Amino acid sequence: MVSFDYYKIFYTVALTGSFSGAAAKLNHSQPNISRAIANLENELNCALFLRTNKGVEMTAEGQVLWEHVSRAISELSLAENKVISMRNMSYGSVRIACTDNALNREIVNKLCCFRKKFPKINLRISSNTTKQALAALLDGEVELALITTELTKYRSLNLTKVSEYREVVVIGRNFGGEMHETTDWKGLLDYPLIYLDSESESYGYYKDFFKKMNLDFRPNIEVASTSRIVPLVKAGCGLGIISAEMATKENADGEMRKLTLQSELPRRDIVLATVANKNLSLAATTLKNILLN
């Protein structure tokens, strides 16, 4: 393999048009420049330069080599500048996977805080279920994942609590069945229920929660994301479980109301997940620290 230094010297000789010019630019002696070019010509078994009264001119072979070497050096220079910009937080992006419930107002405010401090760092936020977010994290598609899960569940990952939220039961104004103002857990399951599908982390959470009370959590309508629960509730299809923040935000038209339970649903954790023993980019590390503070 030909030394890259030879190509760098070749590039500089071609750029300056002389061995002396290359020697001055690279802070080398002219004999060293001449020797390097001679070695490169021996390696490639062809002449690269013709000596003239004005300096040197490239041969046909030299012209072909110049086209490729100049592109390579230009790309390397661009790469170096990008790396320096990344270290200065003036270039780059952070890819994050988020579940619907994890992207609450507190988290959004922290993301906005990061953007204000580092406006040249782009955020790429994908909406996922917890399982999809963790799969994207483990596959290297994202650097960070904001999910709703138990801190002890995935031991192969670094999980840190960043916030919490509470879910409430909502009912639409158009719900046709009779509804008591206050109900208990067993009474709640007597009504048609709308929630996330059985593949979701949250479904499993409530399945276990109700099982501890010898009750079977089995929604009548399952959806892929929490944002799809609200239209079904407003249409009178059943009761829905959504975050308290979403319930307030989505009820500006007054078409829903919160159902009073004898006991509130338990608070749930919003967790930041990263892959254990995997280095993060400086931008991702900085965002992680903002999310955790």
UniProtKB/TrEMBL annotation:
A molecular function (GO) term: DNA-binding transcription factor activity
SUPFAM superfamilies from the UniProt entry: Periplasmic binding protein-like II, Winged helix' DNA-binding domain
Keyword NAD listed: no
HTH lysR-type domain span: 8-59
PANTHER family assigned: HTH-TYPE TRANSCRIPTIONAL REGULATOR, HTH-TYPE TRANSCRIPTIONAL REGULATOR CITR
Family: Belongs to the LysR transcriptional regulatory family.
Protein name (record): Transcriptional regulator, LysR family
Organism name: Mageeibacillus indolicus (strain UPII9-5)
Organism phylogeny: Bacteria, Bacillati, Bacillota, Clostridia, Eubacteriales
